[in-house]
Amino acid sequence: MANNNRRRISFVDFSHPQVWHKLIEYAEVTIAFTKLITDFTNQWAKICFLASSQLHQLAAEFRRKTESEIRDKCHLGGMMYDLWESLLLESELESQSLKKMACLMEKEICTPLTSFVTNKSVELTINKQHRRDLNDILERSHEIVQE
After folding, report:
1. pTM (2 d.p.)
2. Which InterPro entries does UniProt cross-reference here (predicted)?
3. Which DSSP category does 2 fall into?
4. Which of 56, 105, 116, 120 suits a disulfide with 45, CB 3.0-4.6 Å?
5. What is the DSSP code string of 56-83?
6. Which helix (H) or strand (E) covers residue 89, if one does?
């Protein structure tokens, strides 16, 4: 049975040092850019959650404060109340839509991107360490051959 901890050899391991540094720079830029997108999406999801909560709270508070007044003072047979209620229902639907959108952004965008950033950061750290190890082995081998 193969050892699951064994690392696969990557093309990065044997690349020329100048190419290696470029690959590292590209990987670092990719990770930084992905992290920026993740942070932006996460903040946007939080804003949507907050707006959803505030809109729902506003509609509930308005309904609570005005329901009895509109019913008591309305001489249009409840028509005014129905108009206000339909507006409040639309606001609640908008609140639910914002909440669903925020949940989807967290689930479908933030979580996978966060996982990607974590995995690529770990992979980059491991690759850097393996490259240092490879360079140490090569240096030591050259010293042994020189002796």
Report:
1. 0.69
2. AH/BAR_dom_sf
3. -
4. 105
5. HHHHHHHHHHHHHHHHHH--STTHHHHH
6. helix 79-104
